[in-house]
Amino acid sequence: MLIVVEDLELTMCIENEEIRTVPSVFLYNRIMDALVKTNYLDLALSVYDDFKAHELVEESITYMILIKGLCKEGRFEEMFELLGKMRDNLCKPNVFSYTAMIKVLVSEGNLDACCRVWEEMRKDMAELDVMAYVTLIMGL
After folding, report:
1. Beta strand ranges found along the chain (DSSP E)
2. What are the CA-CA distances from residue 134 to residues 13, 69, 122, 139 (Å)?
3. Residue 88 binned pLDDT confidence (cut-offs 50, 70, 90)
4. Cα–Cα distance measured from residue 77 to residue 16, given in angstroms and rounded to the nearest whole number
5. Which among 120, 78, 82, 80 has a CA at the least distance from the CA of 99?
6. What is the pLDDT of residues 113-135, one digit of tens each?
7. Which residue among 43, 57, 97, 104 is least crowded, i.e. fewest CB within 10 A of its CB?
């Protein structure tokens, strides 16, 4: 798969066809993270599709990169769907993961989604810490 982002003058070759190598999970995560941070979420999601096609296994950071991007774009149903996959395939997100989601939602001014994420955190019995409370309160 060849990714070309002309606005950034960035060309990345994800798979070398000649030697048939598959990039590592770490490399895929770095590419998706860079794409999300530069507002190319749909491209990051297509890289994730390629990731899955190579039958690689997600790490918690893989999910969090995409979840943060979906939060930032306001695509909450997809975010909660991915959160469900994270629970099914890996583990329950921890308080740090939830706090990161809430922080993004607060920065986007979406208190309804913040409260929904807060409820998910309570359902998962994540051990709430001061930072989680402070992050939510900052949004109020």
Report:
1. 2-5, 10-13
2. 41, 22, 16, 9
3. confident
4. 35
5. 120
6. 888 888 888 888 888 889 888 88
7. 57
Task: Please state at what angle helix 95-107 crosses helix 111-123, rounded to 10 degrees.
Answer: 170
Q: Model's pTM, two decimal places?
A: 0.74
Give the number of other CB atoms < 10 A from CB of residue 77: 8
Q: Which two tokens stand for residue 70?
A: 């979906």
Environment class of 22 (CB within 10 Å of its CB; exposed 0-12, middle 13-18, buried 19+): middle
CB atoms within 10 A of CB 53: 10
| Cα–Cα distance, 6 to 131 (Å, whole number) | 39
Q: Which helix (H) or strand (E) holds 48?
A: helix 41-53
> Residues 95, 127: contact at Cβ < 8 Å?
yes
- Non-local CB neighbours of 78 within 8 Å, separated by 6+ positions: 70
Residues facing 132 on adjacent strands? none
- The closest of 135, 60, 68, 136 to 92, measured between CA atoms, is 60
